[in-house]
């Protein structure tokens, strides 16, 4: 049985690092000197290799080397998978290995991709107890070659217990599932959510060998949540193996008790919600038409209280301020859930779990609003998701924060715009000055966050007339925080998806900027060549454009403009007298050069610059990629030209 070259080199590196860590060379020198002094007879002139190996074994050097090397032979397609060397021997690990997929029937007719051919790919994402991983992308096929191993740490969260090895009983009480999300990425880099699955890994606790193999049936999402998308073969291994295993009956009983407890909590909340709704309708007749949303379906078709979609989310060092958080959320793409056949008003309701939203890198306005609200709560603001309508009675969600001075600010999660709310007084005299709303919202039916749910029971649900005094029970009817917490607080029920941490940027901004700029230059040269035009680049002018792009992004983040004077002064110095300067900035959420260039040419202003004819024409292009958490990015491109004016 042979190792593939990449595994062989990985194994050699692990052993090499381990030997250096043990200072093995010094130990060998000591044993060699000692052996030469003690064991070599005066009549011998040399020491054989066998004599030296026996000396190393007698002194326990070989045993010391092998004692701390932990490998596991996990058989898969005649290969050996080597576990990472950074395992802490005092911790318990779950090694989850994906051994390939099958029955992805949607790709039954998919042709075998040719070497180097760009094709659609599958990527598997995992989240388990604050740890996130993803596989390498593999070509989409009926039997995709998903072969990947993930080392998941099963640690205890209690204070003072971090150094203890988790035993079988402790692990049985850990009901956190492994959340698997399968994403398809097509040739134009558009992503599709294929499946979202919660794996209960605890069956491995009853395996005598500490290893079990399973076939996971992945179901579709949205309107296809009852249809099988495909099957993944997996193996689960516990390291180190348990000294005492649990019987399968104990595990089944524990899972059954958890389901019963969750079902009872959800039943009691549903009874409470129905009673609360009846009371709300009795307040006034107009309440029946207000947009009050208590439950929403997730990607798997499961009805969950809307409050469970909001959690306190801290981004660590990845986001520095609430406004930067709003900018990050606005960079995630907008896509409504597809409707088969296009009926039902053209929109399928689907609120996504946070991991599915982040992995897909796009979602509906509800996904954006719940993520932004979670981040603002993490920054210590009093934030709520608002459910209401925009013009033409289009349903919409956005975010609201309440200041300590009762200031109400609306945050549009799709654009990062902020609006100050000042209520209009309907009882004021006709000629009295009234504030003019700048926000695009028309009505508001309810607001909620991770702890509160309040329905608007004011005579009018118009946002401009609305008061946001939540303590006034004649204006807002609140649900019991205890009732909301019973099904929405972390750990309250096993049906709640665990909250994943944000990951750092997947792009290196400088490298991505340089690459995209080079590709755009090539496309401009080829485009002008087709028109019979030569292309001469002005590198200094290209560099001067950088400050404008940085200022544009800063303005999107903070709402304040700066640096424009310096940019204008630099351009005047770079453009000689008697010459004309033209510039065209544009913003993208992707870094695909051909897509970006095609979009730019659709603008007559950009086309005029790229296809510029005249005397002494010099072209410039500058790209700045700003990387944000996950795979979100803001891409700014500016095309410019200068040429001698001829009257």
TrEMBL record:
Species per Swiss-Prot/TrEMBL record: Oncorhynchus kisutch
Domain spans labelled Centrosomal protein of 76 kDa C-terminal: 509-644
PANTHER family reported in the protein's UniProt record: CENTROSOMAL PROTEIN OF 76 KDA (PTHR46436)
One Pfam family from the record: CEP76-C2
Entry annotated with the keyword Cytoplasm: yes
Source taxonomy: Eukaryota, Metazoa, Chordata, Craniata, Vertebrata
Family the entry assigns: Belongs to the CEP76 family.
Record GO cellular component, one term: centriole
Name of the protein in its database record: Centrosomal protein of 76 kDa
Key words, A-Z: Cytoplasm, Cytoskeleton
UniProt keyword annotation of Cytoplasm present: yes
GO biological process: regulation of centriole replication
Transmembrane domains' residue ranges: none
Classification via InterPro entries: CEP76, CEP76-C2, CEP76_C, CEP76_N, CEPT76/DRC7_peptidase-like_dom, Papain-like_cys_pep_sf
Domain CEP76 N-terminal span(s) in chain numbering: 10-69
CEP76 C2 domain residues: 86-243
Subcellular location: Cytoplasm, Cytoskeleton, Microtubule organizing center, Centrosome, Centriole
Main function: Centrosomal protein involved in regulation of centriole duplication. Required to limit centriole duplication to once per cell cycle by preventing centriole reduplication.
Domain CEP76/DRC7 peptidase-like residues, every copy: 349-479
